Amino acid sequence: MVLEAVMIVVDNSESSRNGDYTPTRYEAQSDAVSMIFSAITQGNPESSVGLMSMGGKGPEVLVTLTTDHGKILEGLHRTKTKIRGNSHLATGIQIAGLALKHRQNKTQRQRIIVFTCSPIPEDEKTLVKLARKMKKNTVSIDFVSFGEIEDDVTKKLQAFNENVKSGDGSHVVIIPPGPGLLSDQLITTPIMNGDGASGAGGASGGAEGADGGQSFEFGIDPSVDPELALALRMSMEEEKARVERRQKEEAAAAAKDSLTDIKEEDESAPLLNKDGEASGSGTDKKDDKDEGDRMDTA
Questions:
Q1: Can you give the pTM of this predicted structure?
Q2: 203, 189 in Cβ contact below 8 A?
């Protein structure tokens, strides 16, 4: 999978206390963040993930880019006691962009995933301006909007997405409250599976299953068994990487063999003849004898 540096921004505003997601909005985010971390780092071990919060008094970088899952879990647990205030979406995105700018591996693709479950105080004009700036800096931004989603919030997120989107990446996923876990619904979205995935959230579940599973990758509906679907996808990626690595090794071995088959002139001749003398010395000896015979005759 793609090599990337990802900053995940969680919403720890007062709205995240709501219990319309199991067990609360904040806990639902935490489970989803953990799942995203595992998917990213298992897809490419050199990818890294950081964590931020955007509620309370202001955005806070909880964990800089890392491959340590324990640090992410510790950051989520620490923020659980800081649920308060309103969200600061624009400022949070700007700080996340700065954190990505200072990543150690500059070959990593820059990506921000924002969870939002509260009203967005910034106006649309401000968000559009920020989106264009992020696009200029080649940062893709995904939004996971959940909770009691207002039309105003959806409009602002879509306007942001239209101005930041460039090629593959930058999605808006809207997940309404339901009996399923937020992480289970998120696994079927383009945020986890790229642009090849269907629609927003796990809401569009059973209708496509009537085809006998043929419309789903691996023949399995991810909304029914998300863990199995993720395991199969990871297995496919690992097998693909293994095949590519083997092909490269075989090509290198073939190139090496072709070089060893090239022989220099007279390389096939033995170094010593049957008399233990250097090859070719017999001719010189015969020439010396003939010269001596001609001198005696004279």
A1: 0.68
A2: no
Closest CA to 189 of 161, 229, 239: 229
Mean pLDDT by 10 residues, the chain (298 residues): 93 94 93 94 94 94 96 95 94 96 94 96 95 95 92 95 88 89 90 59 34 44 60 69 80 78 53 58 49 49
How many CA atoms within 13 Å lie on the side-chain side of 270?
Answer: 7
Nearest to 89 by CA among 110, 133, 63, 119: 119
Q: How many CB atoms lie within 10 A of CB 7?
A: 29
Burial zone of 43 (CB within 10 Å; 0-12 exposed, 13-18 middle, 19+ buried): middle
CA–CA dist 92, 10 (Å, integer):
10
Q: Token digits for 92?
A: 């949070």
Which residue in 74, 79, 83 sits closest to 17, CA to CA? 83
Cα 38 to chain centroid, rounded:
10
Q: How far does CA 186 lie from the centroid of its chain?
A: 16
Cα-to-chain-centroid distance, residue 242: 17
